[in-house]
Amino acid sequence: MEWPLWEVFIRSKQGLDHKHVGSLHAVDAQMAMENARDVYTRRREGVSIWVVESKYIHASNPDEQESFFDPADDKAYRHPTFYEVPDSITHI
Amino acid sequence: MMQTPDPQLLFDLKVAEEQRIEPKDWMPEPYRRTLIRQISQHAHSEIVGMLPEGNWITRAPSLRRKAVLLAKVQDEAGHGLYLYSAAETLGVSREQMIADLHSGKAKYSSIFNYPTLSWADMGAIGWLVDGAAIMNQVPLCRTSYGPYARAMVRICKEESFHQRQGYEIMMTLAKGSQEQKAMAQDALNRWWWPVLMMFGPKDDESPNTAQSMQWKIKRFSNDELRQKFVDATVPQAEYLDLTIPDPDLKWNEARGHYDFGAINWEEFWEVVKGNGPCNRQRLEARQKAHAEGEWVREAAMAYAKKRVMSYEL
Ligand SMILES: [Fe+2]
Ligand SMILES: [Fe+2]
Questions:
Q1: Partners of A22 in the beta sheet?
Q2: DSSP class of residue B21?
Q3: CATH class for domain A5-78?
Q4: pTM
Q5: Which one of A37, A72, B80, B182 has the fewest CB atoms closer than 10 angstroms to its CB?
Q6: Do A3 and B88 count as a contact with CB atoms less than 8 A apart?
């Protein structure tokens, strides 16, 4: 039987988010962590690693991308450029 | 109400606009199949590619060279793993890919079916084989399938050390004793032509190229990449004062490129078909390693399950 698949997320340096870098196979979290270190951080590409078994990731469906994200489409007033401020007004 | 757009049109549009295709996006079946074939072949090449160099780790001439070669071979294992991971996002399992490699159904780069006879081969491989791989791989960083492109970015960052350490070995030998220089020349003589074959058949005999270029999986044709490689490599050989084993090699002022002699395609196809000098040896080494690891894989899995059960008590 194939070992479970894990997704790997790495924080490249303090102050940055963890970012998805790929996947690997491991029997448990400890092995996933050690394999992630050896596969994805051989040149100090990370200061922190998250691993999560791939089966626990729920992803949005790209086929419904339009309708799923469209509530954001008609709300231009959420952006600062929506508002008119005279040129003479600064620091705003 | 908006109409649901035709998925094929949407796909074509994304590719035309240089957007990346991501794993769960709709894609044409032949695109998926082509990617699975190409990415898994590429992964297999990284993995099988460890064997000819692994052959010299214990016999490297100094601790420095040994540490470097070990690190390089370890990188190649990493490259294989990045690529298997990218291929798995297309719905093929790791187990299936490995099974296809071991049954001989899946191919890997023909270059790794040549033997590594002397230490100078470690120089020639790093310089030429990794050099050719870089030519191929750099444009793949912009390939249309997201996970493949991202894996290639990671790989390309690591490859340049591979080529440089190889060139350094060649430089050391070329500046050494007459015997050492002869070793370097002999390695160049044996690797030159198989390396040119790494770019694959000539354009007019490469039926899949047009489609792959249209899908933006490929950015340059085999012949274009081969020419780029020759143009880049000739001055490097001149610096080493080594002779490229091709009497027809000469600068063509009008084309602005080097002309080079005819490749022995019969040899290429023989190696692809499994009749190269080391095809059997390579496959047997992979099969043996996999079979002998079976009990380890099972034991690790059983141990992990047992630990989970003891948490749950
Ligand atoms: Fe590699
Ligand atoms: Fe390499």
A1: A8
A2: B
A3: alpha beta
A4: 0.94
A5: A72
A6: no
